[in-house]
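Researcher: Let's run the pair from yesterday's discussion. Sequence first, then tokens, for each.
Model: Starting with the first of the pair.
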Amino acid sequence: MAGKRTFFVFFLFLVAFSVALSTEQINEVSKTNTVVIDGENITYKVTAGLLPVADQNGKEMVRIFSVSYERLLEREDPSRPVTFAFNGGPGVAAMFLHLGAFGPRVVDRSGDGTEIPAPPYSLVDNPYTLLDVTDLVFIDPVGTGYSEVADGIDPQRFWDVKEDVAVFAGFIQSYLDWSGRRRSPVYILGESYGGIRGSYLASYLQDLGVFPEGIIFISPVFDLGTIQWSSMDDTALALSIPTYTAAAWYHGKLPAYLMTDLQKAIDLSRDWVEEEYIVSLWKGSGLSEERKWEAASKLGDFTGIDVEVLYKRDLRVNAVEFATLLLEEEGRSLSMYDARITAFGPYVGDSNDETMFALSGQLKTCANDYFKRELGYLTTLPYRSGNAEVYLNWNWESGRPAPVSPDSLNTGYPDASKALAQAIIRAPYFKVFVASGRFDLECPYESVAYSLNHLEIPKSLQKNITHKVYPGGHMIYFNPQAQKQLLEDLRDFYNR
């Protein structure tokens, strides 16, 4: 769900959106339910429907589908937060975070997240929901879920880094007014490409007079240059090596001296990358044969890939190549989303990625049943969990940062780091929580850490950022053990 290398990858704006003129949702359904959290029965209202978002002239532009969960309390509590959650893509609905992670109803799961479930699929009450500490609103972008554009509007208009953020900001304003929650603390929760969307959104909301108290990122990307390898820039490649080490350790492909302790292996890998590997890549063809063989040998130790293969590839193996090569002799490839999971044959994309293919099917089946049968949201349309047309037509250019000087040129990737830094500097109380999966080849931990370490913020504000790693992949929460720890950490984050 991040990066331009797969469908599920992973901002001032061209169009300003304002509060919709309507006072009620379209096609709205509500019901009351309960969920048990830490032995306590929590009653909540779930509402599903389309909320219109208008432009600055009051003209309806889009109708955004969302599902909200509000804990029912004895009296109104203006201090109770409301969290707006979305996935990435671009072109992915909120289904993963909603029915896979934090909603009060989630897909049934077991083990450590490496087992691919077989049908029939079902939803169960979620003991790891965030509903005890915050109300939740799960948002489906234009082109996904049941969201739709108004008559006569081209949906591609909103398949744009900047326009997408403007729609989300308009929706949040509309929701806060419609629900009477303007006084509530606002939080943002984004996964994968949600790192870019969420960073720009936080800054843009501040421009509109909505001041988020905090933001949560799950397996995010902030700068696509940190995960998108190019022959002219080895940064993304170097940042991926410690994750290769973790994956090779999991599959028992490291030499004995590195197999005793995972964290020690990762630390040694990171140190070598910083002190020697980057230097070798920098030299290019200027690297001596002796030094090249030495580097290939050490890289082989840390990745489990044959030394001669590494030598012939000039010490460069991108994530997709690594996913294919590590278990090639066994006729299997790694999942880019969770390197612990394997599939038959070489890696050829999401079509044979065991994690994405199987989990998407499970979630999509349950989403259609949940919205239509359990909640009673009546529509003849299938729920669009992902939309390849959105991703393939996405306007990445609008997300590129402006040149640093009038006579300079920026030909790089979309980078939301400056927007995130701006949001932090503007509001010293603004707090950031970042969760990464140790076995995530899409958005490796070190790539995320690199972006956070290069934020242009005062040292005094760095304490506002928390970055933790969990024993899972891109969708951390599919490992129940990791999800439990993540929930505890997020509870602390909200209560800080």
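Model: Moving on to the second of the pair.
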Amino acid sequence: MIDILFAIIPKLEPFAPTTGPALLKSHCEAGGLTATVRDYNIDLYNWLKKKGLHEQYFHDDDSGFITWFDRKFVYPEEWYELYDVIEPRLLDWIKEIKHINPTWVGLSMLSSASVCVGRKMCELLREHAPQIKIVIGGAAVRKENQMWLDEGWIDYFIFGDGEFSIVELLKGNTQAPGVNSRYPHQVEDLNTILMPNYSDINWTHYEFEAQYAPIYVTGSRGCVKRCTFCDVPLLWPKYKWRSAEHLFSEVELLYHEHGRRMFRFTDSLINGSMSQFRIFLDMIKKFNSDKKYDIDQIRWWSQWIVRAKGQMLEEDFALMKQSNVNELDIGLESFSESVRWHMGKKFTDDDLWWNLEMMHKYRIHYTLLMITGYPTETPEDHQNTLASIQRMADLGYLTPSSNRTSTAYLSFGNTMMIQPDYKIYKMLKDDPLWRDGVGHNDWSYGDNTIELRLSRHLEIHKLVEQVSGLKSSWLQDKHVRALEKEMRSHDRVEV
């Protein structure tokens, strides 16, 4: 019998196990407790792959749109359809948990999709193993999980950082920071967090278990920005970062003990602290310098923020390239400077295009993460987006990936989602142009309706296909075809 079993709950990218449960295992064992980790995410991925259903479940990112379109405000329709398929596997997990017989089960939920599975797991655990105590945690846990507590599905939830709180809870301190709290707990000093323990992980279970498959590492929590549409400040009100030395010690551990070569940083932005960022990259550069073959060198991938000229220097882009940056995910959100200003992203168009020029010069591959239909977005802003996409193509930033000459990829979210606890909701709720909808997508701001936003989304995707030569899987989706049919019935919208 062990004290706690940590379960990684689907749906998440199946590259590698998430780092949270491995960290919690380290802290529990340091506190004299016994713990084990089960990655049910990769287990479900491999199980569905045998049935030819893995891509349908793991690579369909249109749940936000589907929720709106089908007017189902709990879970997408696909969840109900899929549950009949995956129920036997969930029951297998319950059997395994009953056999291990832990005192506690900790469910790690990091996405809205994992909440679907997590809720069902709680229900099955209550039915088949009522003696086991259930605690949930992860980025998908919010104060709203008080409802799960009230309904009896769980015994406790931890809101925010859980490394030290979980140990306290398992030892009987139900008042530990973050436990059943309305306010997220933050670890004050991230350098006090232990190295992750992956001893329960079988790396051969991962389809992408080769050296250059990414493994997750966290260098900071929170963000230096307070973007109006983002939930990161709800989890981490303060931006905290690890020292470059502490972070690199984890990278070295994963390199030597587990053979990892590609590191995917889960940070909201890796360049939040420019001083630590530069030190860390220099450490990677020096580490790689004595490696004879590329296959032995460290590579990395992270989210990144556009900084003004003077904050980022050309030498920084050169250092990123020298430290083997593989790809950057950049939260640009809009090509309109006025829209970005309203979002809280206060950098100029000159800053933006200089950054793109530097990344193209140093052959740094990146993805621009974009939002279609921000509340203050005007027709002129939309035309600017189209013109900016064309400009990127004309400059050679957008070309077919097979040419290996392009550095940029554009990723447009389906539509702008607004939830009541987001900063933007609080900003607009008294605005006469604002109309709240029944779903997170179903709002309007003046003439900016969901039909208009989705029509712009379709137009953007078609242009990206045209100028880059890259097929958009989103445009081929059955829901888009249904959407086009639905939108043709609205006289005010022309697709």
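Researcher: Give me one sentence on the second I can quote.
Model: The chain has two domains: 4-191, 195-487.
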